[in-house]
Structure formats: C-alpha cells, structure tokens
Amino acid sequence: MQPASPRNLGEITAERINIVDADGTLRLVISNKDRMHPGVIGGKVLQRPRPHAGLLFFNDQGDEAGGMTLTGRESPGRRDADAGLMFDQLGQDQTIGLEYTERNGQRSAGFKVWDRPDAPLADLVDELNRARAI
To answer: What pTM did the predictor assign?
Structure first.
C-alpha cells in the first residue's frame, strides 16, 4: 500500500479520529465524550460507558495503554471537573497518572501510582462485562 501524500487541511472538525498503523492496528483515538472508545485489553472490548472526551493510547498489540480524559461543568453553586493523564501497565489498568478532581467544593490533584497484580486484566474482562450488564 502506498502512503498517502501529505496534505494540509488547515482544520478538521470531527467527533472521533482513529490513528492506525499500516496494518490497521489502532494506536490512538481522539474523541468527544459521546464517541469515546470503551477500551480493549487482551483483544477483548470492555463493555462500559466512558462519557469523557480525550485521547486513548493503544500499544503494539492493539490494547489500551493509557490516555488523557477531561470533563468540566459549572452550574450555580456547583463545579464538577476531572482531568487525568494515565499510563497503563502492560496487560493491566493504569499504573501511573496525573489526576485532578473537583466536586462540591472539594478539590484534589496529584501524581498517583497504582500497584497492579501480575495477572492479566483480560482474564477478568468477561466477568466485568457480565457484571456491568446486570
């Protein structure tokens, strides 16, 4: 397959953009909150709502490897916001990240580290999907 010739589009408006390798392996998703990819681990799609705009990173195997999500809404007397930049352990969930959260006048921000098990998260995906369907 011949690579596409470079073009300058100036500006693109889209609800979601998928960046793929030449073989079709998904590498990056840029999305609004309604079209965000649910995530893949061990080749299995996670059946979960993900109402956040942002970016999702995918590794060489096509599994989710981290991402950046953003939310924020202000109404009279109330502010709700979240922002996160996360990087996943191979075959697991996030293992390091930067997080900001604000709810009901309470705010927190910081660098987090999670200690994940060696067992692959893919082993639990079917069970998680069944539990979410209840």
So the answer is: 0.81
